[in-house]
C-alpha cells in the first residue's frame, strides 16, 4: 500500500514523504467515512427496502476500505466477500423474492416525527459514548506493513490461541444451517 | 397461714369434663354410621358426676377433720396468666361454703343424670344431651371450686353456654332456639355487670392478689363508694344468672328445654350461682349495708311478682319456673340481709325439692306423651302413684309446711328479716309464702285430682320406668329430711349448717326473743294453711278451665313485661343495627376502601397503555431506558 | 487519529439504533441491526490497530460469522411471517399482549 502516491508539484511542503502519506490516509479516511455515513443515512431514510439495501452495500464496501486503512488486510477481504458479497446478496434476494409492491409496504406516515424523536432519545447515548472515546489515549494510524493483519498472522492466531471459539463458531454455523432448513420446511402450518 | 394442698381437688371438675369430651367425640364419630347403645353412653355420663360426688364426700370429710379456722384446701393447677400486677392461677379452693355446694351439686347432678337415661331414651341425639350435661356439671364445679373471681367467671360463662346449648336442644323447633338465644343474651347483660364489678375490684384492691383469701384480707381497704359500686355491679351479674328483676325474663322461656335440664340447671344449680357469688363475697357486702338492702329488696319484690305470675299459668313447667324465680327471690332476701347461712340453707333445701318437683313434672309429661298444659290433665292420682306422692311431698316442702325442709329454711330467712327490723320485707315474705302454697297445690290438684279432661291420654298414661322413679324417691327423702340439718335452737336443734358455714361467710347474727321466733313461725304457717285451703276449695273437686279478665288477664300475660322489653330495647337495637348495616357500613367503612381501590384501578389503566403487546414498542422502551441510563452515568462520571 | 475511527463507529451505531426504533419496515429494521454489528466490528479493528494486537481482528471475524448465521435465520423467519400475516409491518406483532 505504500506505493500509492499522488503526483503533486514538488513544493517545499511536500518534499516530506511521511507527511504526504499521512495527509493521504487522512483524505482517504474522510472520503470513506463520508460514504459510510451517507450510505447509513440512505438505509434509514429510503422507503423501499431495495433502495435501502443498495445504500447499505455502499456502507459495507466503504467499511471494507476503512479496515484496509487500519492495516487489517484479511478483514478487508472477508468483509467484502462475506458481508457485502454473501449476506447482502441473500438479503437482496429475499427482498426480490417476496415481490414487494408499493402496496405491501407499511404506511409509515409518521416516519419523520419518529426519526426526530429517535434522534432526541439517542443523543444522550451517542454523547456518552463520544465522551468515552475522547478520553482514550490517542495513537497514530500509520499503515503497518507485513507482520500485522495478514492471512498468515490471522491464521496462526486463530489456530493457536483461538481454536476453541473457532470450533464453536463452526458448530454455530451448523446449527444455523439446520435451523434454516427446519424453518424453511414448515409448510402448511401458517393460517 | 399455709393451706393444705390436695391434688385431687382439680380432678373434681375434671371428671365430668372428660366424660363430656369422651361422649362428644364418640357421638361425632359414630352418628352417621350407627350408634352405641343408650346404656353405654348413659354409663359414661353417670360415671363422671358419681366419681365427683365420691371425691366431694372425701373433701368434706377432710375439712371436717381440720380445726375450724384452717378449713381451706387449695390446689393450684397452673399459672394462667401474669400481666403486670395481675396474677391469675387456675386454682381451686375448698372451704366450708364450696364444699357444701359441691356435695349437693354432685349428688343431685348424679341423680338427675340417672333420671335422664330414662327420660331421654330413644332420643336420636341421646349422646349429645349427655355430653352437654356433663359439660355443664364440669363448669358448675369450676364455678364453685374456683379460688378467685376470675376462675369463678370461667365457670360462670361455661354454665351460661351449656344452658343455651341445652335449652335449644330440640333445635328443629325455631321457638326453642329463640328461647336459648334469649337466655344467653340476657345472661350476657348480667355478665357485663359482673366483669365491670371485677374490674373495679381489681382496680381498687386487686394489686396484692386476686383470689378470695387475699381479697378478704384486704377488703378493709375499699372505700365505701367503690365498695358500693362493686357490690351493685356484681349483683347485676347475679340478677342475670339467677333470674331476678329485671333480668328474669329468660327463665320461663328456658322451659323449652328437656325437663331434666330444667331440673338441674334452672332449679338446683346454675340459678343458685348468683346466691353463691353473693355469699362468697360476703366480706364485701358486709362492709356495705346499703348494697345488701338493695339486694334484699330486689329479691323480695321478685318473689312477689313471680308468685303472682305463677298463680295464673297453665303450663306445668312454667308454674315451676316462676316458683323458682320466687324462691330465688327469697334466697337473695336472705343473703341481702346478711343472713348468709339462712340463704344458703334455703339453696340447699330448694335444690332438693325443686329438682324433685321438676322431675315429677317430667314424669307426668312423659306419661301424658309430652302434654304440658295442666288443664288437659286430671285424675292422674291413680295412674301415677309414686309420682303423685313424691310430688305431694315436694309441694309441701315448697309451700313451707312443717315438718318439711322448706319450712325451716324459709322460716329462717323470714325470722332474720323480722328480727333485723325489716318488717316490710317480712310481711311481703309471709304473703308470698301463702301465694306459693296456693299455686303449688293448684297445680297438684288440677293435675292429679278430679276427672281427666282428655280420656284418651288418660288411658295411655303409665308410671315411668325405675330409672326415673328411684331418683324421685331419693329426692323426696331429701326434701323431707333436709330440714333437720339446720333446726333452730328453739326447737332443740343445733343449727349445723350455720355453724359449718361460719368460717366462710360473715353472718350478721340477730338475737331476738323466743316469743318473736314462735310468732314468726306461727304467722308463716297460718299463711301456708290459708293458701292450701283456698286451693283445696277451688280445685280439689276438679275445676273448669279459667277465663281471665281484668287484673287476672294482666297477670296471665306476665304484666306484658316481655312486650315492654321488646319495644324499649330490642326493636330500637335492631333498628340501629339495620341503619348501620344499610347506611353506615356501605358509605363510611366501605367508602375509603372503594376509593383506594378505585385509585389503583385508575393507576392501572394509566399504566396499561405501556403493555399493549406491540413488540416494536418494547424495543423503543429499551432504547429509552438505555438513554436515561447513559444520561445518569455521564452525570456521575463527570 | 484513532479517535476518528471510533467516532465514526459511534455515529454508525447511533444510526443503527435510530433505524431500529423509527422504521416499521421489517427489512429496514433488520439491516439496521446489521449496521450496528458493523459499527462494533469497526470498533474492534480500531482497537486492534491501537494496541497492535490481532485479537480484535479475530473477534471481528467471529462477529461476521455470527452475523451470517443470524442473517439466514432471520430471513427465514421474515419469509414465514410474510406468509402468515401478508404484511411487512413490525407494528402488527402483538401476541405478547397482556
Shape of chain B: globular
Calculate the mean pLDDT score of chain B and round it.
84
Q: Between the first and last Cα atoms of chain B, what is the distance in angstroms?
A: 86 Å
Biggest interface, chains and residue tallies: A-C, 83 and 70 residues
Overview of this structure, please?
- The complex is a heterotrimer of chains A (191), B (638) and C (98).
- Chain A has helices at 17-45, 49-69, 73-97, 111-135, 151-160, 163-185.
- Chain A has 6 helices and no strands.
- Chain A is an all-alpha fold and 191 residues long.
- Chain B is mainly alpha-helical and 638 residues long.
- Chain B has 25 helices and 3 strands.
- A 3-stranded mixed β-sheet of chain B has the order 1-2-3.
- The longest helix of chain B is centred in the C-terminal third of the chain and has 48 residues, at 561-608.
- The longest helix of chain C has 31 residues, at 55-85.
- Chain C has one domain: Helix Hairpins.
- Chain C has 3 helices and no strands.
- In chain C, 55% of the residues are buried.
- Chain C is mostly helical and 98 residues long.
- Chains A and B meet through helix 4 of A and helix 25 of B.
Concise account of the structure shown:
The complex is a heterotrimer of chains A (191), B (638) and C (98). By secondary structure, chain B is mainly alpha-helical.
